[in-house]
Every structure is written in structure tokens, then in C-alpha cells.
TrEMBL record:
Gene3D superfamilies: Type I PLP-dependent aspartate aminotransferase-like (Major domain) (3.40.640.10)
Protein name stated in the entry: aspartate transaminase
KW Transferase (keyword) present: yes
Top-level taxonomy: Bacteria, Pseudomonadati, Pseudomonadota, Alphaproteobacteria, Rhodobacterales
InterPro entries: Aminotransferase_I/II_large (IPR004839), AspAT/PAT-like (IPR050596), PyrdxlP-dep_Trfase (IPR015424), PyrdxlP-dep_Trfase_major (IPR015421)
Cofactor: pyridoxal 5'-phosphate
Record has rRNA-binding as a keyword: no
Family statement drawn from the similarity comment of this UniProt entry: Belongs to the class-I pyridoxal-phosphate-dependent aminotransferase family.
Protein keywords: Aminotransferase, Pyridoxal phosphate, Transferase
Span of domain Aminotransferase class I/classII large: 34-380
Enzyme Commission no: 2.6.1.1
Catalytic activity, as annotated: L-aspartate + 2-oxoglutarate = oxaloacetate + L-glutamate
Pfam families, per the entry: Aminotran_1_2
Length: 393
């Protein structure tokens, strides 16, 4: 029997760099020690107090079908959080609770694109973006963000990429993989392009609590963009709840109403005990979010200190998120070649930049996701390895 074209073409064939991650996992399973600096998974687990709230809710009976739009109290809490941080009045009817940010990304594209429409996103990009667009039936189109621009997109490039069939633009700030944070000038340039091409703006803001330099500005806070922006958020990064799968979409009431209808026919909501745990976590306020973010702030400082002592790898200091993007082209290797050799020779696993799009070719992404001393030692080894690659034969 023939499967659908859509499911068979979600991800194209050939290498996308993820073989490094898979090879590292296989080596670990075989008992070989590997320093894992590939994916954005916290090295701390979900706070025990949050787990306690989840346990109390489940044992208290909140294990049946939960409200499909989300538990009212959680929607209110998300709305209050968004109102406080953006200055835009946001209510329960502007919020849909989703099974994580990934489900939010898929749903947002379903809401804004018809089959065959072009859905734009910025390159470098989070690795699931192209497949998510294809899963929604749309056509992925990239907009380059250049290293010399701090990996921030130019409005002119958005206009050039947005043809007559373009319906949406997805941005991600703070950015995975680059660590770039879009300032007001960048967002206003994006806004002008979105308005000129009459696009929906989808804003992936799951790293909004991991800010090291500058400040986070949601495009929804710009008055001309409020009614054409869907914001995707999540408990995964802010509260180390990656496995709990609890996120949200915030947007105009009419769009949210239709997205609730979509959820009724797809996910059928998020488990109530997970939502109750998310509500408890949000009620702990900024202090808990700062505690979860603190290890990455420390490791960013460690990375800058170590990398500033060498002159082979070029660094764009990350303004946010849990990654460091390094330009390895001075070694004479591609990002994939560098990552493969580093894993083979030193048992350190990093992601090739090309995993995240053409604009990141010649780079590697290093996740700051192991204990401080282990992270510093791995980064120092990585720097020595890069220097050895440039040494005369």
C-alpha cells in the first residue's frame, strides 16, 4: 500500500547532521564515555515541587479529559504573564494550551496556511521547522540571516522571499541555534515586510526567559502587528519541563477559536494534571524561572572566557538561549567534518551548523547542557582540537 506523499516527504533524504547525535547516542549505549553537547535538554530535572503538584493533581482525580482549550486557571495565568511582559491586554480567549511548543508550531501553520502556500522562516532555524511546515501542507521557504548581521534577518530578504503565495513568516527570538535576540529595529523591519506582503507572523518565544544580553521584545507588543501575530510559548525551557509537553498559542480571539476547533479534532487537549503542574510552576513567579536559567548564564560566561583565549574559532556571543554557535571554517573543515572528527578523537558530541540550514554552514552548535566544570573542560578540549587542525603539518 502506498503511504501519502505528505508523510513520505516530511523530511528529505540525505545527511542533515543528525547522524552525529545518533552516533553519540549509540556510543553511549555501548558504554563509551561521551560528553553530550548536542540537544537542548537541561542537565537538571523538573523541580520536585512541580512534580509534587502534578502528583497531587493526578492522585486527586484530574486524570480524565481536560478542557480542550486548556484549564481556565492556566489560560488565565498565561494571559496574565503575557499582559505583564508585553503590555498588550490579553485574556483567556486569546490563549490555547497545547501539547508543547512543537504542537503549537504545527497548529499555527495549519491556521495560517492552505495546502501549497509558502510558509517562510529564518535560516538558521530550529531543525523541525521545515518538516512542521510540510506536515501542515504548506511549502517551506527560507529567509537567510547572515553571521555579519548577528544572524538577524533583513526586511529586504523577507520581501525577496515572499512571493504571491506566501502566507506566514515564522521567527524565533531568542534564537535557537544562534543565540541572537532580535532588537526593536530588527522587529520593526520584520513588521514592515510582513505588512507589505500581508503575512501572518508566527513568533516562537520558548526561550524568552533565557536572556543574557539585551531584552526580549515580542512582536505582538508592536501595535501594528498585534492582530496578525501568533505567539508560541512553552514550559519546556523556562521551567525544565521538556517531557511534560505543555505549551500555548496566544493570538487574536477569532484565530484561537478556530485553533480550539483544530485541537478538538487532533490532540484533544493536554492532560489536566500536567496543566495543574504548569499552573503551579507559573505561580512561583520569576524566581523559579531565573533559577532554571542560571546554569546557562554561568556557562555562557565560562564559554566567553575560554573562547576569548583562542583565535581559531569565531564566536558570535549568544544573547540568549542555551547554545554557543562557533565558526569553524578557519580549521579548513566543514561543520560536519569538524563535528565528526571531534566525536571520533575526543568523544565530544556537538551539532554541525548545517543541521540548522544553509546560513549556518561552516559552524557548529554547542549546547551548554552539562555541569559547569565538565562543560569548561569539553570546550577547552574543543579549542585545542581546533588549534591542532590549523597547525602546520
Amino acid at each position: 500500500m502506498q503511504l501519502s506523499h505528505r508523510i513520505e516527504t516530511l523530511t528529505p533524504g540525505g545527511s542533515n547532521g543528525w547522524e552525529i547525535f545518533l552516533k553519540a547516542k549509540a556510543m553511549i549505549a555501548a558504554g563509551q564515555p561521551v560528553i553530550e553537547l548536542t540537544i537542548g535538554e537541561h542537565d537538571i530535572r523538573t523541580d520536585t515541587a512541580i512534580l509534587g503538584a502534578m502528583d497531587r493533581s493526578a492522585r486527586g482525580g484530574h486524570t480524565g479529559y481536560a478542557e480542550i482549550p486548556g484549564v481556565a486557571a492556566l489560560r488565565d495565568a498565561v494571559a496574565a504573564r503575557i499582559t505583564e511582559r508585553t503590555g498588550v491586554a490579553t485574556g483567556r480567549d486569546n490563549v490555547l494550551i497545547t501539547p508543547g511548543g512543537q504542537a503549537g508550531l504545527f497548529s499555527a501553520h495549519c491556521a495560517t496556511c492552505d495546502a501549497g502556500d509558502a510558509a517562510l522562516f529564518i535560516d538558521p532555524y530550529y531543525v523541525t521547522y521545515p518538516g512542521t511546515v510540510r506536515a501542515a501542507g504548506a511549502r517551506p521557504v527560507t529567509v537567510p540571516a547572515r553571521p555579519e548581521d548577528g544572524f538577524r534577518p533583513r526586511g529586504a530578504d523577507i520581501l525577496a522571499a515572499a512571493g504571491a503565495d506566501a502566507k506566514s513568516l515564522l521567527i524565533n527570538t531568542p534564537n535557537n541555534p544562534t543565540g541572537a535576540v532580535y532588537d526593536r529595529e530588527t522587529l520593526e523591519g520584520i513588521g514592515r515586510a510582513v505588512l507589505e506582503r500581508d503575512l501572518w507572523l508566527l513568533s516562537d518565544e520558548v526561550y524568552d526567559t533565557q536572556l543574557w544580553d539585551g531584552s526580549h521584545l515580542s512582536p505582538r507588543a508592536l501595535p501594528e502587528l498585534t492582530d496578525r501575530t501568533l505567539v508560541i510559548g512553552s514550559m519546556s525551557k523556562s521551567h525544565a519541563m521538556t517531557g511534560s509537553r505543555c505549551g500555548w498559542i496566544v493570538g487574536p480571539e477569532e484565530a484561537i477559536a478556530h485553533l480550539i476547533n483544530l485541537a478538538t479534532h487532533t490532540t484533544y487537549g493536554v492532560p489536566g494534571f500536567v496543566q495543574d503542574a504548569a499552573l503551579f510552576a507559573l505561580e512561583q513567579g520569576d524566581a523559579l524561572e531565573a533559577e532554571v536559567a542560571a546554569p546557562f548564564r554561568r556557562r555562557r560566561a565560562l564559554a566567553l572566557e575560554i573562547l576569548n583565549r583562542q583565535n581559531v574559532l569565531r564566536l558570535l556571543p549568544p544573547q540568549g538561549a542555551m547554545y554557543v554557535m562557533l565558526d569553524v571554517r578557519a580549521t579548513g573543515m566543514t561543520g560536519l567534518e569538524f563535528a565528526e572528527a571531534l566525536l571520533e578523537q575526543h568523544r565530544i558530541a556537538v551539532m554541525p551548523g548545517a543541521s540548522f540550514g544553509a546560513a549556518a554552514a561552516g559552524h557548529i552548535r554547542v549546547a551548554m547542557t552539562v555541569e559547569d566544570s565538565a562543560f569548561a573542560a569539553a570546550l577547552e578540549t574543543l579549542c585545542r582540537f581546533a588549534a591542532s587542525c590549523c597547525a602546520p603539518a
